[in-house]
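Moderator note: this is an archived Q&A kept for reference. The question asked for a predicted structure of one protein chain; the sequence and the answer are reproduced below.
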Amino acid sequence: MDRVYSMIQELRDTSSIVDKKQILKKYMEHREVPEVLKLAYDPYLNSYVSDTSLYERIVGEGPIYSVYISIREFQELFMKLHNREITGNEAKEEIVSFLSKCTSEVRHVYIRTLARDLKCGIAAKTINAVFGKLVPEFNVQLASTYDISTYYDNSIWYASPKMDGVRGVFKNGVFLSRKGRSFVGIEHIEEELRELSEKISADIIDGEIYIPGKNFPQIYSLISGDYDMKAKSELKFYAFLATNSQTSSTVEMLRKLDELNAIKPKFIVPVPYTRIRNDVEAIIEQTKDYVSCGYEGSVLRHPNVFYSEKRDKNLVKFKFFNEADVIITGILEGDGKYSGSVGSLSYTGKIGNVTIEGEVGSGLSDYDRAVIANKPGDFIGRKMTVKFQEMTPISNNTASLRFPVILGFKEDR
C-alpha cells in the first residue's frame, strides 16, 4: 500500500494528463493499485462516507498497534459499507478501529478511497486509458455555450431556466452526481426518484439538486456534509429531463415531465419549458425573464435531438456573463481585512487559442479562504470556474479576464 501512497503523491505533483498516464503505467503492475482505483472511482460502488474529518484527525498519529493490514481486509470493510451491513455509529466505530491499525500513509490512502476521490486529478477516463475498462464511465449530457456565429439548424428552442445547483442523474437504478459519485444524506430524493421512474417508465431522470436563493458552493457544501440532516431535507431535485428508450423527441420527453408533475411528488420538481424562436432577440428576452427570477441564465434544448451523453450544439446554455474553467497556479496572501489569510488565487487557462492568466479573489467566502489556507495542496493544480465580462489583451496570444468572479471549484457543476 506504500506504493499506492507514493503514486498518489506523484500524481498530485503534476497537472499534465500525459504525465499522469505515465505515472499510472509506472505503478500498474502493483496488485493493490488497480484494486484501490476500482474502489475509489467505480460510480456504482458506495461507501456512504461523506465527511472524512473524523478519520482525518487520526491520520497523523502512529498506529495504536502495528499489524499487517491487507487490501483484502479493506475491501471487505468497504463492501460491508456498500451493502449497508453496517451504518451510522457502528460503521464509524468499525472504520476507526480499522484505521487505527495502519500507518499514517496507509490511512491516508484508505480514507481517500472511502471518500471515493484520491484527490490527485484523475478520473475514470484517464484510468481506463491505462488499465482498459477497469472503471465504468458515467457519461451525462452536457450543454455547450451558445455562440452567435454557430449555425443551429432548428427554427425553435425549448427553453428552461439555468439553475446554480448540483447536477444529479438517476440512471440505471442509481442516483449519481455528474462525476459519477454517490450522494449521502439525501435518500429522500433518491427513494422518490426510484418510485417515480417506475411509475412513468423512465430510464433516466436528469436535473439539479437546488434550493432557490442559494448558490452552487452553498448547495454543494450542504450536500457534501453530513452534519445538518434537517437542512438536507429541504433540498429538492429539479428535473429537467425524463426519458426512456422509446422517447424520440423533446415533445415526448416533456410529456414524461408532465406525468411527473401530475403525480405531485414531494421532493421532485419538474422544470417548466417555454417554446421560443431560434433568434438572438428571443433568446435574450427569455434569458432576461429567467435572470429577473434569480436564475443564472437559460438552457436551450433542440426540438428533435433532445438527449445524448456528450456535449454538442443540441443543448446550449446562454448567460450574460462569460465563463471559463481555469487551473489554480498559486495562492496569494491578502491585505487589509484578509491580511495573513488567502487574498486571491492565481490562475491560467485557455479560451480558444488565447492563454488567459491573472489573479482572482472575488467570489471567495471567508469559509473558502480558511479551507484553502488549511489545505493549500488540495487546491494547487485544481480547476475552478470563473465568470467574467470580457478579455483584456496582454500580448498577442495572452489575455487577462476583466471583472473575474469565482463561481466554484470543479466538483459537480
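Archived answer notes: DSSP finds 14 helices and 17 strands in the chain.
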